[in-house]
């Protein structure tokens, strides 16, 4: 093995990537626009939800209920007729439709239990789930205030002192932006490395490499360091200029420690990309195989949902995946400011998993060349 061969072959891979405009566009998009949209698009947060009201009572209490729905949680309610309610919801114009029945105030003052109907467009699942609770709370508060002639605050026998650590304002965009960077690192490292190998096979340059005085180890190592280097530089740029600069998301821990962990993670995932590329004959086959592997990895690694909420057998199985340890490492460093004394088990796990994947990929790569 010669280090010069690995460096020169890696530079050749970088030139090949520069000549591929679609891959460059994918890298730029994944570490800029994709992160911005993931940070700003938060469907689980109720924001200007469309609501319409059918006021069949035309009473002071119905007016109080209507005027209680205001931005930013709801848009200004639209007064509609009962015949319009179903048509508007079928057209997707309203997420919530409130129907106040006739004689509602009279029955309320007579100590009866009148019913207000609320129709919810459940195709907007996240807003429907949180918004229905908001609607019920607002209507209940307005009715209680109307009956008691004052707004009474509920009292509890204890005082709960709540302190939110690491994200005091509970800003969900912080979580989304950083997690999207983590997922982009995993996705692009596999895609770029596998595409580099398949591109050489489709262009016929693999045969050129076989007649040169280079070994399969040198060819594979050159693809690993070159594609990993591109993803590492892109992720550092994204964290500094997009996440920390553009989106103003505070990064708690050491960026150098995170990049070191990302390097170990890239070593494992680029080996995985080569292994998948040797199993796929063409780029479409590689894309289909990538979906079968990448989607479960990202969904079960803990970046989308906490690992603690998954079945124990899934948690144990996913410990064999490199991005599970990388998600734990990245969230500990970037969210909670953890140091080397906290994340060293994840670093050690990435080294072990990366070494195993490298051995398996090199063995498969040699069979692929033969």
Quantity of strands, as a count: 4
Structural class: mainly alpha
Low-confidence stretches: none
Q: Main sheet: which strands, in order across?
A: 2-1-3-4
What gross morphology would you assign?
A: elongated
Secondary-structure element pattern, one letter each: HHHEHEHEHEHHHHHHHHH
Range of helix content: 55-70%
Main sheet record? 4 strands, mixed
How many domains? The number is: 2
List the helices and strands and how they pair.
Layout: H1 3-18, H2 21-31, H3 33-40, E1 51-55, H4 60-67, E2 78-79, H5 82-90, E3 96-100, H6 104-109, E4 117-120, H7 125-148, H8 172-203, H9 205-210, H10 216-246, H11 255-279, H12 283-300, H13 312-317, H14 322-334, H15 340-369
Parallel strand pairs: 1-2, 1-3
Antiparallel strand pairs: 3-4
List keywords for this structure.
370 residues, mainly alpha, abc type-2 transporter like fold, 4 strands, 4% strand
């Amino acid at each position: 093995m010669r280090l010069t061969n690995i460096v020169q072959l890696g530079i050749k891979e970088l030139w090949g990537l520069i000549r591929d405009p679609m891959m460059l566009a994918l890298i730029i998009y994944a570490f800029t626009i994709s992160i911005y949209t993931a940070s700003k698009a938060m469907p689980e947060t109720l924001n200007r939800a469309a609501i319409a009201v059918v006021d069949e009572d035309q009473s002071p209490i119905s007016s109080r209920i209507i005027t209680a729905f205001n931005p930013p949680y709801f848009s200004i309610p639209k007064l509609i007729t009962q015949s319009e309610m179903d048509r508007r919801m079928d057209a997707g114009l309203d997420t919530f439709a409130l129907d106040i029945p006739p004689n509602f105030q009279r029955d309320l003052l007579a100590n009866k239990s009148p019913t207000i109907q609320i129709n919810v467009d459940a195709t907007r699942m996240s807003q429907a789930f949180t918004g229905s609770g908001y609607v019920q709370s607002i209507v209940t508060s307005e009715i209680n205030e109307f009956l008691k002639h004052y707004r009474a605050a509920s009292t509890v026998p204890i005082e709960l002192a709540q302190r939110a650590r690491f994200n005091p304002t509970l800003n969900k965009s912080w979580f989304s932006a950083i997690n999207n960077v983590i997922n982009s690192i995993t996705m692009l490292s596999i895609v770029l490395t596998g595409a580099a190998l398949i591109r050489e096979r489709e262009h016929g340059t693999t045969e050129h490499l076989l007649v040169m005085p280079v070994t399969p180890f040198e060819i594979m190592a050159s693809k690993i360091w070159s594609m990993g280097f591109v993803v590492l530089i892109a992720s550092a740029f994204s964290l500094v200029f997009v996440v920390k600069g553009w989106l103003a998301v505070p990064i708690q821990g050491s960026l150098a420690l995170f990049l070191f962990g990302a390097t170990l993670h890239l070593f494992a995932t680029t080996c995985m990309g080569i292994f998948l590329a040797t199993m796929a004959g063409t780029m479409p086959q590689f894309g289909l195989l990538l979906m079968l592997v990448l989607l479960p990895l990202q969904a079960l690694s803990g970046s989308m949902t906490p690992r603690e909420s998954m079945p124990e057998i899934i948690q144990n199985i996913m410990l064999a995946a490199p991005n599970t340890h990388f998600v734990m490492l990245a969230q500990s460093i970037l969210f909670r400011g953890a140091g080397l004394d906290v994340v060293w088990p994840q670093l050690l796990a990435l080294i072990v998993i990366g070494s195993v994947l490298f051995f398996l990929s090199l063995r498969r790569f040699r069979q692929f060349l033969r």
